Amino acid sequence: MTPRPPRWSSAEERDALARAAATGEPSRPPAAEEPVPAGLSRRGFLAAVGFSAGALAACARAPERVTAAPGEAPEHAPSGGARWFSTTCGACPAGCGLLVKTKDGRPIKVEGNPAHPVSRGGVCAVGQASVLSLYDSRRLRSPRVDGRDTDLAAADAAVRKAVASGGAVRVLTATVTSPSTRAAVARWLAGVPDGRHVEVDPLSASAALAAHEAAFGVRALPRVRLERAEAVLAVDCDVLGTWVSPVEHTRGWAAARDLGAPTPRLSWHGQAESVLTLSGSNADRRVRVSPGNVPALVAHLVHRVAQRTGGAAPSPADPCPVAEDFVEDSVRRLVEHKGRSVLLCGTNDLDVQRLVLLANERLGAYGGVLDLAAPSLQRRGDDAAWAALLDELDAGKVATLVVAGVNPVVELPAGRRFAAAAAKVPVRVVVAERPDETVALATVAVPAPHFLEAFDDAEPVAGVVSLSQPTVQPLVRARTLRACVAAWTGAPEPDLDLVRAHFEREVAPKQAADASPGRAFRRALRDGFVETAPAAPAAPVLRGDAVPATAPRAKPPAAGRLVVALFPSVALLDGRHAWNPWLQELPDPVTKQTWGNAACIAPETAAALSAKDGDVLRLSGDDGTAIELPAVVVPGTARGTVGVALGHGRLGTERFERVGPRWLEARPTTGRDGRVGTDASAFLALVGGLARPSGAEVRVERTGATDVVARTQTWSSLTMPTATAPHGGERRDPVRETTLAAWKADPRAGNPAAHHGPGLWEGLRAAGPRWGLVVDLTKCTGCSACVVACQAENNVPVVGRDEVARGRDMAWLRVDRYFADVEGAPGEVEVVHQPLPCQHCGNAPCEVVCPVLATSHSEDGRNEQTYNRCVGTRYCANNCPYKVRRFNWFGYGSHDTWADLVLNPDVTVRERGVMEKCSFCVQRVSEARAEARREGRALADGDVRTACQQSCPAGALVFGDVTDATSAAARAAKDPRRYRVLEELNVDPAVSYLVKVRERPLDGAPKEGPHHG
Amino acid sequence: MGVPFPVLLGVGAALGLVVVVQSADLRLPGDATGYEPDQPVAFSHQKHAGELAVPCLFCHTGAETGRAATLPPASTCMGCHQFVRASFAAVRAEDDLAKAERRDPRPVTSDAIRSLYRLLGRDDEGKRRPGAPEGEIPWVRVHDLPDFVVFDHRSHVAAGVACATCHGAVETMERVRQVESLSMGWCVTCHRQESGRVLPQPVRGPDGKVVSPTRALHPTTDCSVCHH
């Protein structure tokens, strides 16, 4: 096996590596330096104050505590115990199934519902964080009419009066996955002289919908069943991160890449994209392609697919924009696995989508990987309808506009035009959770409930009706759009009645008739979902006229211009979660940036602009729109492209100014305009009746200013600087990789055995259970759901941008991300993600240096941290080779009585001055053990599922007793791919990893080399 | 000659310190042994748990099934006390008096029950005012562990630890008093001493089959068993 190119985690580190390789001199990247204050010594001052205060403090009896016994026992809720509800995630239209854990009547954690047919047990980072949005103290709390707080009756009266006075009524929503809401809106609009419901998605798939309508007569997106795929090529489509239904896709993707299964599988995944996305970072092979060249690339791909499968396709008119062998290799694999391969494309361009559809038809994807018989209903938005609505608004033809579930001013293309035109509408009704840019335009604003406090239904995929139920007493006087229109129709009914009536009328009859409709509803509510037979069991057939005459052309930018590629970030998506501090502080899986967005540019572009990370760039379009934001050099970005994450710079993020500790040197979390990040939606264009997120041409120049880019990237990296490597300059790779071919030849490929001398502890360790975690790097996508799950479960605080920039983020579980250059393809990179919790070492270096025994070893092999014992010497963190310990430099509490309701009562809220770290979810271990004892049985494998493991959409994490040979974790640890990070240190970590296996470009290629057909 | 003055002073100071320590009943900070706060209702454990022999779990239902033993909701009290409003002797005395005065007996409500009714927002006869929700009883917590300590009743009940082991003879207390220090040393001592005790309880495997006819106790002394 050839030695792999070294991995690096930042541009500086790569440069240092290159220098070291060139000169032979050891070199290390510049370390982030903390500014040293001149004059008054903060430490001295604080020491004096602290000493005086301590000396004055007196011992006293704890204050009297009152425990109120309730008047009546809550139904089925033992005090202190958890109660679970099944419901449907409302954080995005994907409609994943959730189990919500409530304690003392308040939801504190969401988990995946393993039985749910869409998500099958996974939850993404956004879903995990959605429980915090419930306790947002800045939610809209009361209806407003003309800017004055009022009640629902007054708001209803205002709307009814407006509708009664005639004129056109338009309802603008994002995709409504709720069939009962859809029906209620239709019912209301049927009674209105000129009513229309317009659905538009901020992350639009309008062109794909239109292409399917033209070809199949069905306006729907096929459901992507990646578990059936053997070869996937995604072009401009973050299928694992943000596209349509990421959890569902990740589950399928991981199922098709399971080397630990009885029959090991590794489907091939190719990716072509302009900005390095989560999907691209996980692809077997990735090329960068600028947004303007996507049509040309697709034309080449489809042409060759057609040639190989014997069909017609228009000839490409442009030269191939990416490496020839990528196209050849991809097409060969797609055609080879005909029937089990798919071409996915997220470009919102009708010509491109028609070609993609054609290729998928030739590849036999319909009925295989793409399911059109039971299609996805997670995207229904029609950009053309939005364009038509804008024209109507401009012309002043709309009398009443109702907006719900979308923030058109900043989320939809031409949002500013909407804001101007909306002023011409006499009555503007907005149903929204919190005051945003659109609520600011409203004449009537109605608070919408959070999805955890209302009854609802959803049909994310045809044939799957997923129900939601309240898990808490509503915190605000809110009403869903469905209940609103019911009230405006003149038949006000609670959501429960509306949802149930719709269910009993439409869904129950489609089920096996073994129960009354009422019983079927109760059962569906308990299970969280119900599956019905699809209306059309046979897949629609392709109509003949599907072959376009000409291929779409590349659109190169004008000279001196760069192309803006707007992309949804994994955390904030289109910005609907910009108010969630957990998501704001979640490091982006690729850039590792928190609290804000950046102009992501390729190293070549950075060199041309002589810009480095943090330099503020000004992006100005020819129409006068301009934004300024800091540069971040992201390897793998297409040349001439500036990637900017959507959803930042939102109204309402001003609240985060004071997030984090208040102290002398604190810097605000917000930027110069008082908001978090920069709103780039001005570049979100509406071209030819379709949203165009990528393609705006801009001039880019440095302003000369610099800005804080709070990234968690460099300081926790486990790559060893050459200077500190042991004798001989050995670099101990924390991630190990191999190729599929090498793995097939030798399952230990890429996994050299560790060698270490005798330890100090041999023979002293007690026999007994030992908890262990096995992480399959081949399955892990780095989606970071585990990070937020851990944060929610373990009360991990939010520290703010300044603290993150100082390297003081508190995440117990971080996901390390390593780049490696691809040999023979300059500019292309490969990425490996590695979740890294506390490794719970058997010979833990932290334990022996603690002077107060605050960190110790448990009988079941965990490394425990006892907060009340810790005095904060931080010796343990210094001695930890994995850098997973986190120190509370401040009291990081939220100081928000609403947000505090999300705290898990089973986990201590840590104080200032103590160390903390991953506990292997000891509270879950304790709970499972106590339950087992109560039931008089031994603990069984699977009784304890850690928060990270439960959430993982890929199923990459396995937790269990590794000394029990029958446990899933022990079985996983027997895999020849298993290794442990820094094993040569002889610290005996309990967390082990399975080597990442990728299919290299030429793996399994025909011996005679690629042939051109 | 006599004893030198500094020696006298030293001995005197030491004796004085011993006297002070002995008489002041000094103990470690946080040790609330003997804490016996006034409660909002003059509820007598001696009467209920002692004379009437109501089992502990009748009211503290969570002790067997959950982490917290739980305080009973007021509806548990009212199960009896919507009818029982005073001691039998008091009711008898009123009956006798009424007979002597040749009138109907008046309803008798004891002071303790009256205070309960008042807290719950009921009238003196225990009738709830229409539409009014049941009120709460703000009990003052007696056995109060610090927030960084987790105690699970269910594991201890399953291990056969009697309630009185930690809470003392509550059935003899008019008002509940903390009798043990509930300090960490006290907990750990018990965990150490009880290790190896064998309970006649069968242990079942995941499939429900009995894997062991008895259960050997092994209370751990890991820090994280209480602190996490």
Please outline what is shown here.
The complex is a heterodimer of chains A (1013) and B (228). Chain A has 1013 residues and is of the alpha/beta class.
CATH topology of the domain at 144-204 and 381-510 in chain A: Rossmann fold
Give the C-level CATH assignment of the domain at 144-204 and 381-510 in chain A: Alpha Beta
How are strands sequenced across the largest beta sheet of chain B? 2-5
What's the average pLDDT of chain B?
Answer: 87
Mean pLDDT value of chain A: 87
Please give the largest β-sheet of chain A.
7 strands, mixed
Number of helices of chain B: 10
Describe this structure in words.
The complex is a heterodimer of chains A (1013) and B (228). Chain A is α/β, with parallel strands linked by helices. Among the domains of chain A are: 144-204 and 381-510, 3-Layer(aba) Sandwich (Rossmann fold); 206-376, Dimethylsulfoxide Reductase, domain 2, CATH 3.40.228.10; 562-706, Beta Barrel (Barwin-like endoglucanases), CATH 2.40.40.20. Helices cover 25% and strands 20% of the residues of chain A. Chain A contains 27 helices and 41 strands. In chain A, strands 7-6-18-17-16-8-9 form a seven-stranded mixed beta sheet, with helices on both faces. Chain A has a six-stranded mixed β-barrel with strand order 22-26-23-25-24-29. In chain A, helix 9 (294-309) packs parallel to helix 11. The longest helix of chain A has 16 residues, at 294-309. By secondary structure, chain B is mainly alpha-helical. Chain B has a domain at 37-71 and 139-225. Chain B has ten helices and five strands, in the order H-H-H-H-H-H-H-E-H-H-H-E-E-E-E. Chain B has helices at 5-24, 45-51, 56-59, 62-65, 74-81, 88-100, 111-119, 153-158, 163-167, 184-193, and strands at 137-140, 198-199, 203-204, 210-212, 215-216. Chain B has a two-stranded antiparallel sheet with strand order 2-5. A two-stranded antiparallel ribbon of chain B has the order 3-4. The radius of gyration of chain B is 26 Å and the shape is flat. The N and C termini of chain B lie far apart (64 Å). The mean pLDDT of chain B is 87. Chains A and B meet through strand 2 and helix 25 of A and helix 4, helix 5, strand 1, helix 8 and strand 3 of B.
